[in-house]
Design brief:
Strand content: over 45%
CATH topology: Porin
CATH class: Mainly Beta
Distance between the termini: 79 Å
Largest sheet: 8 strands, antiparallel, barrel
Number of helices: 1
Helix content: 10-25%
CATH architecture: Beta Barrel
Shape: elongated
Number of domains: 1
Number of strands: 13
């Protein structure tokens, strides 16, 4: 019974589908949606809400604490319009995470403080949705992924007193990684001065940013401990998109040279 009903409805569903597609095409504007180019700057803040900002390594009386502190990110960004309220956003950015190292061997009364920086190059791909608040003000939210390139390992060496030496190395698990990325913010749009954006982002890597290898050497003995370092952070985002200015003057038309 139900099989016959489905078969009888198929021609009508097909006709309805053709009609809907034709109507949608007839109502679609002929013009293409604009794309915008700009740049962004982000101060990077460590947080314990979406990851661990501090990691402690310990073994045989040797302690190292690595703490993420404020870093920064900057680069170019491209926004590609899909509809009036939906867009794709991509670009390329330079990101630097900064860390403090606190190294102690309490039994030997030895302590060292040092710093470490880790850099990445990022290519985000975010789906962006706008909410129009007024003629010039918009709220937008985006979600997507970031492809990261980690060009090199990092490390520091310390020899504070006597025969005590410390080596700390941040080893990546591969040159390429993937991070999850979410953004929300507000932007002011002007025709002649461009777009001004202020918002915030949360970024969570799918794997540790690097493995910290901590070595302590004293009179020929070596103590080694390895721990994963999380690179999650929150950021405050400043973006600017250049306006699209149409040339109203006479356009040059290619033709034969006389």
């Amino acid at each position: 019974m139900f099989t016959n009903v489905k078969l009888s409805l198929k021609p009508y569903l097909f006709i309805l589908l053709i009609f809907a597609v034709t109507l949608a095409k007839a109502q679609t504007p002929k013009r293409t949606l604009p794309s915008y180019f700009g740049f962004q700057l982000r101060p990077v803040f460590p947080t314990n809400f979406i990851g661990a900002s501090e990691t402690t390594l310990s073994k045989s009386g040797f302690f190292t604490t690595i703490s993420q502190r404020m870093g920064y990110s900057f680069g170019g960004t491209v926004r590609i319009g899909l509809t009036k309220l939906i867009a794709l956003e991509t670009g390329i950015n330079f990101t630097e995470r900064n860390y403090d190292l606190d190294i102690t061997v309490p039994d030997s009364n030895v302590s060292v403080a040092d710093e470490m920086s880790f850099i990445e190059y990022d290519v985000p791909l975010n789906g962006l949705v706008y909410i129009k608040l007024s003629e010039k003000w918009y709220m937008n939210a985006s979600l997507g992924a970031i492809v990261t390139f980690k060009p090199t390992n990092v490390g520091v060496f310390n020899s504070p007193v006597g025969f005590h030496t410390f080596t700390h190395t941040g080893l990546t698990r591969g040159k390429v990684g993937i991070d999850a990325n979410a953004n929300v913010g507000f932007e002011l749009r002007t025709k002649r001065k461009g777009f001004f954006y202020l918002g915030g982002s949360a970024r969570v890597p799918f794997q540790p940013v690097f493995d910290l290898v901590a070595d302590y050497q004293w009179q020929g003995d070596i103590v080694r401990v390895i721990e994963e370092v999380d690179g999650s952070f929150l950021s405050l985002d400043f973006k600017y998109f250049f306006p699209i200015i149409k040339n109203k003057g006479t356009q040059f038309i290619d033709g034969p040279i006389k």
